[in-house]
Amino acid sequence: MLRTKIVHLLIGFLLCSQLLASNTGDKKVKTKVKEVTVFIEGAQLKREKKIDLEKGITNLTFTNLSPFIDAKSVQVKAEGNVTVLSVNHQQNYIDKLNKSKEVEAIEVKLKILGKQLKLEETYLSIINDELSLLKENCVISGKNNQMSMANLKEASNFYSTKLTALKLKKIERENTQSELYSEKIKLENQLKTLSGKKNNAEGEIVVRVKADTKTSPKFKLSYLVGNTGWFPSYDVRAKNINEPVQLIYKANLRQDTKVDWNNVKLKFSSSNPKISGVAPELKTYFLDYNSHPPTYNLAINSVAGRVVSAEDGLAIPGVSVVVKGATIGTATDINGRYSLTMPSNASHLVYSFVGMKSQTLAVKSSVMNVDLEAEPLAMDEVVVAGYGASKRHLKALQGRTPGISIKKKEKLKRLSNLNLTIPFQNTEKQTNVEFEVKTPYSVKSDNKNYSVDMTHYELPASFQYFCIPKIDEKAYLIANIKDWEKYKLLEGEANIFFEGTFIGKSLLDIQNASDTLQISMGSDKSVIVKREKFKDFTTRQFIGSKKEETRAWKTHIKNNKNQAIQMIILDQIPVSQLEEIEVEIQKMSGAKLNKEKGELKWEFSLEPTNRKELELKYSVTYPKSKQLIIE
Predict the structure, then answer these.
(1) What angle do CA 418, 423, 425 make, to 5 degrees?
(2) Quick one: how far is CA 460 from the chain centroid?
(3) pLDDT-derived band at 384, boundaries 50, 70, 90
(4) pLDDT, tens digit, for every residue of 105-139?
(5) Are 187 and 69 in contact (CB under 8 A)?
(6) In this structure, what is the dihedral angle of CA atoms 583, 588, 592, 595, given to the nearest 10 degrees?
(7) Which domain holds residue 132?
(8) Is 126 a domain residue?
């Protein structure tokens, strides 16, 4: 009786399985990337495909996708008479992403090199054994045996000839070994650039759909993918100080998503010379007992270094190096090296690379070498979303399929009317920019930096030379640009060209700009500024119960250019914080004084080959029983 029941149950199970199999089909779908919107970190990819469906339930597996998909961002839209029941993201660890022919060729060369290196090591081992044997048997005669001169000469020639031959062979083998090692390192670096350090599993998106009739709907996929991004940079060109500034707005794009983007609609969205072109700033000179004048250590205006793997010490190309809280960034080259111009208020750099632990480091030196540690890839939680299903279907899915959560009061809309947006992390910034490349663009997944010219502007500008000789006697050329907001600029590095010469690098500091954007065009050696203490007027004297100290400075400016220039010179006097300390200006050559900050500003025009001299003289009076440090 029991055996009969078991047989009946098995038959029923088989019949149910066949029935389910007849209503469920599986399809693998290959798609092409149609549109890419690249963010500062990450990118949104859009794919689409028209698929023939039979009546019933079908599991569609979209294959050959990037392994770096953000599972929570996956969205699927189906146009037509079809219901999307669930959307799952997974990684296929069985079928690896196909290797390119270039990668396979490099791997073959590396295997051949490995065999050659092993052979050279064997040859060297044999030569070393022969040398040891020769040295151990170099005794020509015993204690009681005498050798003739002829035999001695013959033995000497033998050892000399043999030893020379072995030494020469050893040098030859060592040179060959060194060349093979050098070739191996080059190939390994190239392989790392093409395919990354890890053999990643390909990504897949599984979509479960139901069709009431035979149909051919169009499916649209969109998702966020990592291991890509862009940062802005500029070429700023000025022929002279009488013409507009030419600005070329560039996007520096890198991607190693393991999937090439071929002829896609491309959008960019934002949500050293080692001598910096960043002009210095004055600090307020507060005067008090036992206080010191402000010290000026020139800020670290550029950082360079190398990023390697902590595991094996090999260089990591394509590491993102970004100023924390800003869009200023760069990426390491094939040797793991980078250089970055720093804004004056920057304090930390963020180093990030897929598969490695990100590091945020304080900027304490102009050279920063970084070791990144590997981080195990963790599987994201599966995200399932249902669209356009009937209440009966949703009720059936509720609580039974992992990842589905349905609110009772949520109104259901037709799939064709849904506006599916991709969530992404916004970086707080002043402007939000989106540029679209008008022609289809291709970007290979090779971790190389692609520079894309997005747009070109001619910016009306007024030019002024700016100098704070107390800190730095260089004269910096500043381009002042009004109505800069309409150009949708982001902060970033700028290559400066002036009068047809590459001057160096500067920054477009958008976050701190007011109604006028100031671009530092670097220093100009044709404008000479020198500040010196005038010792004849630097005195100390006692007046009753008071002590008076006098300081005097002269600043000399010469215009060696063949055209007139506008000039701004800044200096300062100390600011007293006590009533008993009095600061009096005796000479300031017509400067404008900011009493709160103690800042003096001279603004003037200087004709070609002309000179100008500015005088600053001030006295400080305070009780003679006190000590005051005055520069």
Answers:
(1) 160
(2) 31
(3) very low
(4) 888 888 898 888 888 888 888 888 888 877 776 65
(5) no
(6) 0
(7) 101-195
(8) yes
